[in-house]
């Protein structure tokens, strides 16, 4: 992947997380889903709208389409990740061929003007492109909708080493006293757990390795840290802009949130990392126009004039922009999906403990962040916050 594009998408992830991750409830967001759409809009925008979109993208508007096409091609090549772009326009709406040529092949379809028919077609596209993880297009479809530009990302990965499942009575923080679906794992790879010291405090990260070039990193901060700060710190660590230290080199004691390191007796010489986490299932619906300036859409929403002369000679303005996203972390793997749309109107024998070995224990027993990251490019595909674990009912 192009490093310039990866950095631009990751910057948008960090800025969005700062505004969207409040900790009041769980959430998940995918800047990699909105970024290509903003790029296609920027290429066809004019005046202040073009300037604002370029600022949000972090690259010049003139090169945005090429960068978006390359990004979508690279995303589609990641094993376990599906990526698609769709364009629906009303019959009779003229579109410039140059702009259309910049979109991915096979992206175009027609809006009939019948709300029921168009809603059914858009929902079927969203469900099909995400394998059922997202069942509806998040955008309202009305009789006067002229254009819908949408993206879909769906990630499914399996853990290289599955977790064992069980029940845990959570001992601390806002989850104290609750019974949750617990995930357990032991490994000799101590450095799957790491600690980084950031300006907003220390964070502990656990890397859970997937089978298709994408890994999920769980991020735990100090109890007083604000959720968006914890997630932003984790993003800086996984994108390698902030250094971190693996558990094999950390001092004994409690060198990071939720992490304890010591020496124990063992039957062999291998070090041991013991993991306790909770399963989670997070969903979110984002109205991107609540943060219109963040996404470069402030001027583009002014319906008093057209803002996209490079898309159509008819005046167009952005009327709605939304994303629906889900993320599920369980014993066997991880699933995440997002649909983003912009609408224009417009047992054994007794062991002999002969050795003393280093043991690290990391526990995620209170709210934490997560990041799904492409291993080689360090592109953040999904980010979110777990405010509630999957709990067990009597």
Describe this structure in words.
The chain is an alpha+beta fold and about 400 residues long. It has two domains: about 5-155 and about 285-325, Antithrombin, Chain I, domain 2, CATH 3.30.497; about 165-280 and about 350-385, Alpha-1-antitrypsin, domain 1. Helices cover about 20% and strands about 35% of the residues. It is built from seven helices and 19 strands. The chain has helices spanning about 5-20, 30-45, 45-55, 65-75, 95-100, 115-130, 225-240, and strands at about 25-30, 80-90, 110, 145-160, 165-170, 180-185, 195-200, 200-210, 215-220, 245, 255, 260-265, 270-280, 280-285, 315-330, 335-345, 355-365, 370-375, 380-385. A seven-stranded antiparallel β-sheet has the order 1-19-18-9-8-7-10. Helix 2 (about 30-45) packs antiparallel against helix 3 (about 45-55). The chain is elongated and about 80 Å long. The model has no long low-confidence stretch (mean pLDDT about 95).
